[in-house]
Sequence to fold (136 residues):
Amino acid sequence: MIRDIVKSLFIIGIVSTIIAFVLDSLGAHFWYSLAFGVVIQFAIWKLYTYWLDKKIEIQSKAIDADIIKDIAKQTATLPCAYCGQDNDVPIRLDENNSFTCMGCEEESVVYVSIETVQRTVPVNLSEPRLKINEQR
Ligand SMILES: [Zn+2]
Fold:
């Protein structure tokens, strides 16, 4: 960690010195040129890391979208509405579903309906039960 920081500062120092010597030979003030070299390197580094963060953010959003697509995908074996042949159909809950039959090549539309029912309670099996003959 500290070794990396020292290495980075060393590289910044060398590059800044080179920039300062070049600008100095072109008639600029040496120490101002050195300071300019340091500032411009930090600015470039900041821009680079900003660009890298944005790129990673966009990639991770694309990966999240792919994962959500995979989760939303389910497959069901459904009969064709025309000939009755079974087809493996990917079902998505986030869009309308249809499939082209492998047998007759007609397109069937899939309607997905979700309903609710009451939760069932298991009967108590330890209580004595009536035998069928005793009910009469
Ligand atoms: Zn068919």
